[in-house]
Write a structure and sequence with these properties.
- The mean pLDDT is 95.
- The protein has a 5-stranded parallel β-sheet.
- Helix 1 packs across helix 6 (166-172).
- It has a single domain, classed as Rossmann fold (3-Layer(aba) Sandwich).
- It is of the alpha/beta class and 178 residues long.
- It starts with 12 loop residues before the first strand and ends in a 6-residue tail after the last helix.
- The protein has helices spanning 41-50, 62-65, 71-87, 122-130, 145-154, 166-172; strands spanning 13-16, 54-60, 94-98, 139-142, 157-160.
- The chain contains 6 helices and 5 strands, in the order βαβααβαβαβα.
Length: 178
């Protein structure tokens, strides 16, 4: 789910991991009934949209490869997220996901070292190729060391989010005005 960039001028991007940054990480979240926003997440996305940043989700989704849920289930969840964000005045410009895993029982999703699965930088690199992104002004916010490593491998600054209110965290990091 992505929109066409309105113009080709490079803009900074806020790369966000999904589980643990935008929503509570309850383990393989694939159904709306199991989804809960992180406090301040919707407000943070809307604030970055207003500031002219691209907002891009980069999420490992090995639950697909493990057969816990389907890509269609994941896309349906992302559509619901987009609906709620729109109601809050925000939007995600693109969702990138990595369903592959070295031990995936679903053979089509098994790969010994999936290039998109964080800590590999594939999703970030694809976004950098797909969108007019100013890499030097961009930042990735993740909740795991694998997120931080993927950003480093892609040449993007990163921040480790350890919980709490996402908007307040980004204000504290001087990325957002209070």
């Amino acid at each position: 789910m992505s929109e066409s960039p309105p113009d080709s001028r490079p803009r900074p991007a806020l790369f966000l991991d999904r589980d643990g940054v935008l929503n509570e990480d309850r383990g393989y979240v694939s159904r709306w009934e199991d989804f809960a926003w992180i406090p301040g997440a919707k407000a943070a996305v809307a604030a970055f949209n207003r500031a002219g940043w691209l907002v891009i989700v980069v999420t490992n989704q090995s639950g697909v490869g493990r057969g816990y849920y389907t890509e269609a289930d994941m896309h349906a969840l992302h559509r619901r997220m987009a609906q709620e964000l729109a109601e809050a005045g925000g939007h995600i410009d693109a969702f990138y996901f990595a369903p592959h895993h070295p031990e995936a029982p679903v053979e089509s999703y098994r790969h010994p070292d999936p290039p998109d699965r964080k800590p590999n930088p594939g999703m970030i690199l694809r976004a950098l190729a797909d969108w007019p992104i100013d890499r030097d002004r961009s930042v990735l916010v993740g909740d795991k060391r694998s997120d931080i490593e993927a950003a480093a491998r892609a040449g993007v600054r990163s921040l480790l989010f350890t919980g709490g209110d996402l908007r307040e965290f980004l204000v504290d990091q001087a990325l957002l005005l209070a």
